[in-house]
Structures are given as C-alpha cells and as structure tokens.
Amino acid sequence: MYVILVYDCGERRVAKMLKLCRKYLNWIQNSVFEGEISEVRLKKLLYSAKEFMDESEDSIIIFKGPNHSSLEKEVVGKERCSIDNFL
Amino acid sequence: MYVILVYDCGERRVAKMLKLCRKYLNWIQNSVFEGEISEVRLKKLLYSAKEFMDESEDSIIIFKGPNHSSLEKEVVGKERCSIDNFL
Q1: Can you list the domains of chain B with their CATH numbers?
Q2: Which residue among A15, A36, A57, B82 is least packed, with the fewest CB closer than 10 Å?
C-alpha cells in the first residue's frame, strides 16, 4: 500500500523518529514521509515508534491509499526530497 | 476532491501560511492540513500562498485524492485536530 506519514513529536524524540521513519519510507519534507510499504512493515514501524513516543504529547498520522497512483502529488516551491535516500 | 497539504516555510512566513490554509482546509497537525476542496478553491489558495512565499526556500506539497474515502487515516498518539475549526 502507499502511505503518507506525518509526525509531530517532542524535541528530544525528533531525531529518533526521523531515523526510524527513514528506515521504512522516503523523507519528503520536515516531518513528512511517503512511500510504498507492506501492512506488516508499517506495523513494525509503529510498534518501534510507540516504544519511545510520549503518546500524550507526540502524534503520528498515517494516510493509506491502495497504491501510488491513488494520489496525485503537487509540489509548490522548493522540492526538499533529500537525495541521500538514494545514496 | 480530497487533499492533504503539508508546508515547510521560513519562520517569518509560518503565521501567514497557517492563517491562509485555515481559510480553506482543516488543521490536523503542525504544518499539516486536510479536507475537501474544489479545484478552483485550491488554485486560489496556492495563488495566495505564492504571493508571499519564498519559492527558493519554502515548500508546499499537496496530495490529492478523488474523495475522502480514497484514503484511510490512522492516528497514533495525541490527535491534535484543533477544535477551533468548529467554533
């Protein structure tokens, strides 16, 4: 399936969240990831996130679509998609 | 159509971007909006944003789906959807 993941978490946990999400999805903007992922791997990502998240303060929102083509993407301004995902 | 809008812009323009997006969509998380919107109103939103954006530094990404049900949404942790959208 295709997902867009956005997170908003406490300063002390941001680096850990960024590192975790990078293992599963593509970073496209500050706290925003997208990509194809299986249900099992998404569950693993969320299980790992919950291990360090403060669920009373932090938030992850995931939008799931059947596949990449179910969503049209438009970028205005600077495209931040970091190339180090491809190194 | 149904959209998810995420922005990342310079500190001096964040308040203006937040105010603008709130006129058209629902705030759900830091720099993240969602909602039903017509093509015309989305164009108006982006036209207004471009009037103050620094397109060499700022970024808006819009994901468009045919309707609300084209995407499944999952929230982990604190749901930040601010109630003042409904006041």
Answers
A1: 2-86 (3.30.70.240)
A2: A15
